[in-house]
Amino acid sequence: MFSSLRQRFHSRIRERSRRRARLVSKDGRCNIEFGNVEQSRFVFLIDIWTTILDLRWRYKMTIFISAFLGSWFLFGLLWYVVAYIHKDLPEFNPSRNHTPCVENINGLTSAFLFSLETQVTIGYGFRCVTEQCATAIFLLIFQSILGVVINSFMCGAILAKISRSKNRAKTITFSKNAVISKRGGKLCLLIRVANLRKSLLIGSHIYGKLLKTTITPEGETIILDQVNIEFVVDAGNENLFFISPLTIYHVIDKNSPFFHMAAETILQQDFELVVFLDGTVEATSATCQVRTSYIPEEVLWGYRFAPIVSKTKEGKYRVDFQNFSKTVAVETPHCAFCLYNEKEAKAKEKKGYDNPGFVLSEGSETSDTKM
């Protein structure tokens, strides 16, 4: 009992260590950290629009609320200073015929309220600017322009954040596991992908990258070396008709990095298969990229995906997502090398070969019968 618990504990630790080493998570986020960057952080302020869009919602809303409150309070102080310099406040006991720069500003609180009414164009009509002070008129114009800029920036950033294609990518899902089995007489690595919306992705293109650590003939160790993986469907890998779930596959031939792997050794390999799906959102014409990854434990050798599309009695096609990641065990060669050797042997048997050492000799027939 204790030995089994110990094995489970060590397997959990190994699994967690592999998860930490994953470069791309299942939902497409990249697990990478930049250190010792020589460039200053001010370069991110130069591209302030992208920086704001990349922020989380809580930080974005904190910045916007702080910008509004800060501008209201700053201009409230300026309006208070204008009233103080012009001696419009009650502590100066202005005469009855005194015309203030701003009507009904009695202190810092009323100055803050006037700043708020001015910037958001509420206009209650109780406090207003008179023609007595040119400074007040200039301050009113400047605050109005700044308020429009802040409102435009906030509305544009929120709209761009909501309409980003990253949110559309969340409705594209990949199967939990990749499988390896025969397809069309060839050994293939198969992955299932589905579009959860009825709207299509235009010009879809799917491809993959195999990330692994390699050592060059010169002895250089390359971490995260990238190898191209070609994925296709029966109609090709471009302009996919993405109306129903598709099963994409990679043919494991002699040029494939999976060619020298076997069912017994694939779990011992150290690689990460990253799959990308690029397309254009039909509703917004924005480009969209979806990505996921598979580690050796998530590649099932000798399985295929269960059927997912059926036809109802009413003539409609029904997609059962309960079987989306379900797999079924099938008979599969334990390595691609064995499959291709078997095919070559069968081809040689059918073709046949001449034996150059074989000579057909003809002899005269003799009869031992005597008359």
TrEMBL record:
GO process annotations (BP): potassium ion import across plasma membrane; regulation of monoatomic ion transmembrane transport
GO molecular function: ATP-activated inward rectifier potassium channel activity
Potassium channel inwardly rectifying transmembrane domain: residues covered: 24-164
Record's subcellular location: Cell membrane; Membrane
Residues of the site described as Role in the control of polyamine-mediated channel gating and in the blocking by intracellular magnesium: N151
Any one GO CC term of the record: plasma membrane
Bilayer topology: Multi-pass membrane protein
Alphabetically ordered keywords of this record: Cell membrane, Ion channel, Ion transport, Membrane, Potassium, Potassium transport, Transmembrane, Transmembrane helix, Transport, Voltage-gated channel
Membrane spanning stretches: 63-85, 136-160
Main location: membrane
UniProt domain Inward rectifier potassium channel C-terminal: residue ranges: 172-344
Annotated catalysed reactions: K(+)(in) = K(+)(out)
InterPro entries per the UniProt record, alphabetical: Ig_E-set (IPR014756), IRK_C (IPR041647), K_chnl_inward-rec_Kir (IPR016449), K_chnl_inward-rec_Kir1.1 (IPR003268), K_chnl_inward-rec_Kir_cyto (IPR013518), Kir_TM (IPR040445)
Cross-referenced SUPFAM superfamilies: E set domains, Voltage-gated potassium channels
Family: Belongs to the inward rectifier-type potassium channel (TC 1.A.2.1) family.
Protein name: KCNJ1 protein
Gene giving rise to this polypeptide: Kcnj1
